[in-house]
Amino acid sequence: MTAFFATLKRELQHLRQDKGDLFLSVGMMPLLCLLIWWVFSAGQPDSLPVAVVDHDQSSTSRQVLRMIEATPGIALQRNFANNTVAVDALRKRTVYAVLIIPIDFEKDVLSGTPAPLVLQLNSQYSTYSSTIERNLTGAALTAGVGIGLTRLQMQGISAEAGIAMAMPISVNATPLFNEGPNYEVFLAATLIPALFHVLAMILVVSAIGRELRDGTAAIWRSTAANSLSLALTAKILPYFIMLNLYAGLFVLFFQQLVPASYTGNGLSLWLTMLLMNSAAMAIAMLIVAATRNFRMGLSLAGFYSAPAFAYSGQAFPLVAMPEMAQYWASILPLTHWLQIYNQLWMAGAPVTAVLKPIAIIMTMLLLSGTIAYWLLNRFAFNAQSWGAR
C-alpha cells in the first residue's frame, strides 16, 4: 500500500505542477458539458422563419395563416411580394421555408375542390425542414378540418358525424419515449457521455504516454515497487474518479431537469457509464501500449473516439449505414452504451434487456486491458521505447 500511495502522490504532484493537465482533467470537462447542455437547452427548435407569399389575399387564407402562426415552431415572414423574392431569401438563409398560397385558394376551399398549400423547404437543414413541415402540416390539417366541418354543419350534419366524414381515416400516434421530441434529451444528454468517452481516452493516453515521452517510465514503475498493475492503478485512479464523479452529476442533473423523460433507474445507468468509461480507458491503454509514442497515441485516440457519436446510431439509424460503418460502430463502447441509455433510462426497460450491450462493453474492457498490460510489460519499460514524442 505504501508503494501505491507513493505512485498516486507522484501523479497528483504532476497535476499540481502541470496546469494544462490539471485543467484538462478537472476544469475542461464541466465547461464543455455546460456548453453542450446550453446549446440544446431550448429543447425544441422555436420560431423558425418561414416566408409567406399569399396570392389569394382572402379571409380564408388569412385564417389559415393565423392558425399556422399560432404554432410555436414557426414564425411567418409576410413581407414577400412574389415567389422569386421568397426563394432568394431561402437561398440566403434568412428563412428556412417558403409557403405559397395559390390564387383562388378560398374559392377552391369553399367549393370543396382540393386546395393545396405549396411548401418549399431547404432540405439541406433536415431538422429545420422536418420541424417546419410537422408544425405547418398539423396547423393546415386542423384548419382544413375546421372549414370542412363548418360547411357540413351548414348542410344540417351534426358535429360528430361531420368529423367522421371530414376525417374518415386518422392515425392516433402516441409517442411513448421522449415525447416532443426534446432535443435536450435526444442530443445534449447523449453528446455529454460521448464527451466522457473522448476525454477518458485522451487522459489515459496522456498520462501513460508522457512517461514514455519523458523517459520516466522506469521511475514510475520503481515508485510502484516494480508492480505494473500497481503503477497503472495509481496513475489512472485520479482520472477514473474525476470522470465518473462528473458522470454521476450528469445523471443527477438530467434526472431532475426532465424527470418525465427518464423512467429508468439513474443509479443503474451511472454504473453502466462507469463501465463504458473503464472500457474507453482500457482501449486508450492499448493504443499507447501498441504505439509507445505520445503524439501517435493521442492522434489515434482522437481518431477512434472523436467521431464515435456519428457512428453510434443515435443521430442516423445504424441499420441504414454501410456494413463497414456498422462494423466500426460495433468496436466503439459508446455505441453499445447508447443502447443502454435508450432502453434502460429512457424506456424504463429492466436490466435484463440490456445484458448484451453490457457484456460487449465488459468484453472490450477485459480484452483491451489484458492485451495492453502484456504489451506495456513486454515493451514499454525498455529504454528503446522512451523519448518518442
List keywords for this structure.
5% strand, 389 residues, mainly alpha, elongated
Please state the CA-atom Rg, rounded to the nearest Å: 29 Å
The secondary-structure class comes to mainly alpha
So what's the overall shape? elongated
Could you name the ranges where pLDDT drops below 50 across 5 or more consecutive residues?
168-176
Spell out the helices and strands N to C.
HHEHEHEHEHHHHHHHHHHH
Alpha-carbon distance between the termini?
Answer: 32 Å
Number of E strands? 4
**Can you give the mean pLDDT?**
81
- Proportion of residues in helical segments: 55-70%
Continuous helix count: 16
The biggest beta sheet is recorded as: 4 strands, mixed
* Fraction of residues in β-strands: 5-15%
Oligomeric form: single chain
Characterization of the model:
The protein is mainly alpha-helical. The protein has 16 helices and 4 strands. It has helices at residues 2-17, 19-39, 59-69, 83-91, 105-111, 126-154, 159-166, 183-213, 217-223, 228-257, 266-291, 294-305, 308-311, 323-330, 333-346, 355-380; strands at residues 48-54, 74-77, 97-101, 118-121. It has a 4-stranded mixed β-sheet, sandwiched between helices. Helix 3 (59-69) links the parallel strand 1 and strand 2 (74-77). Helix 8 (183-213) runs antiparallel to helix 10 (228-257). It is elongated.
Give the SSE map.
Blueprint: H1 2-17, H2 19-39, E1 48-54, H3 59-69, E2 74-77, H4 83-91, E3 97-101, H5 105-111, E4 118-121, H6 126-154, H7 159-166, H8 183-213, H9 217-223, H10 228-257, H11 266-291, H12 294-305, H13 308-311, H14 323-330, H15 333-346, H16 355-380
Parallel strand pairs: 1-2, 1-3
Antiparallel strand pairs: 3-4
